[in-house]
Amino acid sequence: MIEALNINKSFEGKDVLIDISATFSKGKTNLIIGQSGSGKTVLLKCLVGLFEPDTGEVYYDDRNFTKMNRNAKNKLCQEIGMIFQGGALFDSQTVEENVGFPLYMFTEMSEEERLERVDFCLKRVNLENVNHLYPSEISGGMKKRVAIARAIALNPRYLFCDEPNSGLDPKTSIVIDELIKEITKEFNMTTIINTHDMNSVMNIGEYIIFIHNGRKFWEGTSEDIFHSDNVELNDFVFASELFKKIKMNK
């Protein structure tokens, strides 16, 4: 579980996050949604430690992450997996080397143990016989699955996903969504996903917070969205004619 308590963050005198509190549960796909510039990416970075909140606290299973010293934060970060928007694979390394990178950096595994773990992670994301290929030799969807394999290599307790479906076609996006949901359940992780993909919201949104102008305007499940009278949420989620029709048929 990850808790955000009264998080505030400003840049150059401009308030970006205003008194945001939320509880992200273990074993669930927790989503942060909102328009571009709403503050959702800043919130994600505050949660993972890339930004320091001006005020407020972040807890990882009752451990106060905000007040930890640098060494303690670095140690806790080894329990975190991260899937970046662009995948962030190393172009000069093979798939096998990319997935094995955190194992090489943060463990004392033998080469045999590392390769065994890499094979397990690649198999878990339905990728086999790609170990010696380079990122330039695989598709965008495969790159995202390699990124997921790397993110779970250290068997993390917490998983952060920044726009995991960015640049993917709708069919591949569904595959990635289902994979993230499956591994969240399987490994009982606390997963937090920053997204503007409404298909993700509807398909895997077990807990959702909606950020608007730096404030938390709404929280609930994907099913709750259809019954919400929150004007700002409805304007955001049901902006397209397709989702308007879906709501009307509920």
Short description:
With 250 residues, the chain is α/β, with parallel strands linked by helices.
Keywords:
10 helices, alpha/beta, 40% helix, globular, 4-stranded antiparallel beta sheet, 6-stranded mixed beta sheet, 250 residues
Structural description of this entry:
This protein has a domain at 86-155. It has ten helices and ten strands. It has helices at 40-48, 70-77, 95-106, 111-124, 140-151, 170-187, 198-204, 222-225, 231-237, 241-248; strands spanning 2-11, 14-24, 29-33, 55-60, 63-64, 80-83, 158-162, 190-194, 207-212, 215-220. The strands form two sheets. It has a six-stranded mixed beta sheet. Helix 3 (95-106) crosses helix 4 (111-124), helix 5 (140-151) runs parallel beside helix 6 (170-187) and helix 6 runs parallel beside helix 7 (198-204). The two termini are 32 Å apart.
Strand order of the largest sheet: 6-7-8-3-9-10
**Helix count?**
10
Number of strands: 10
Proportion in β-strands: 15-25%
**What is the multimeric organization of the chains shown?**
single chain
Biggest sheet: strands, sense, closure? 6 strands, mixed
Q: Determine the fraction of residues in helical runs and give it as a percent range.
A: 25-40%
SSE pattern:
EEEHEEHEHHHEHEHEEHHH
The low-pLDDT segments are none
Shape: globular
Using only CA atoms, what is the Rg? 19 Å
Distance between the termini: 32 Å
Structural class: alpha/beta
Query: Could you report the average pLDDT, rounded to the nearest whole number?
Result: 91
